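quick one: 5-hydroxymethyl-3,4-dihydroxypiperidine bound model?
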Amino acid sequence: MFEITREDLGPNFTFGAATAAYQIEGGQIDGRGSSIWDTFSATPGNVKRADNGSVATDHYNRWPEDLDLVRDGGFEAYRFSLAWPRLIPEGIGAINPKGLAFYDRLIDGMLERGIKPYATLYHWDLPSALMDKGGWMNRDIAGWFGEYAALVGRHFGDRLHATATINEPWCVAFLSHFLGIHAPGYRDVRAAARAMHHVLLAHGTAIDALRAEGAKNLGIVLNLEKAEPASDSAEDQLAFDYGDALFNRWYLDGLFKGRYPELLTNRLAQYLPDGFEKDMEVVSRPLDWLGINYYTRGLYKYDATRPVFPYTGIKGDLPKSDLGWEIYPKGLEDLLVRVSREYTKLPLYITETGMSETDDTRRVKFYDSHLRAVANAQAQGADVRGFFAWSLLDNYEWAEGYTSRFGIVHVDYETQKRTPKGSYRAFQGMLHNTR
Ligand code: IFM
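yep, here:
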């Protein structure tokens, strides 16, 4: 059980659980188009055991049971994503009525259960047909994404409590186009620089499109880390500066200051799209809230042998999850205070946090300590309004396949049986005040 109580987070704090379409839905039928994760996972070497999302947790069929779990856990909100290729199979053009019908059922199912829908438009399942045209490397993606956002705003907007454009633009751009770990698996600095800008341009374009359709309460979800230098040396300080700029400041500065960190625009000058500066007004469109996904810290050590960015990320000596990610609740506290002091007074939501772990007693402690970190940040003035556990269910953890379990509910992938874990019971106890 948790030591923290719901009262510690304030009277109007929203608790929720989060998932994403490709990681849970399966249901690759009824006109759903192909996504880059279908082809990336079908390519040898990209994903452990070549696992893919074709069945996942079969949420496409089992969603009523999953929404019951959200409600019975005492969560008042559910964060989910819409699959672009389910709604517009080719990414642009013809709309799939069965895709609309699925999200109609899902959203209405939330409302019937008294759960607030927090939608995300893009959680990484880019339609393959758009990848054929260059995907995030093609500036036209801003218009394609705007068209998709308009559809969502028009059809679902009045039933959505909140809508985020993009989940984790760093992953969309850098992890997927420079580090090559996620689809489409590029390892190319020019591809990365273009994606880094286009993902934010598409975000701003989608905000305009959603607003034009009357959708309200709009935001974006950033994955941010507590970046730190490996030592006090001037070299490691520079390494930290690069790491922090790439992971955190590119997105925060772009969205809230309307410019990118000079350190990076200088370093990437020859690779960035021409005239990107003219887009910064769209990139920095006003928002209604900011979502932050927090998992760990980044520890940066100078490494002159590395091309482009002179650092390497190293492992520190904090306790780790079974994926080797350091557990650092104080980092969340510091990060929230930093964002609210240096960037924005908008309401902040922890749209994801959690850990990959089979020993669920560690997960209970993880959540308890991270909720405490949020309360500490609130006490220092950060306007944090909500907290979403990642994830409601064990699910498809991208390049890790099904080997990594982040759920507060266990899923037996043979039978699809859901079994609440101790961490789910801890939330339930706190939220129903039955500890
Ligand atoms: O599973 C992912 C999720 O899709 C995005 N944020 C991080 C999670 C854990 O890696």
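The chain has a mean pLDDT of 98.
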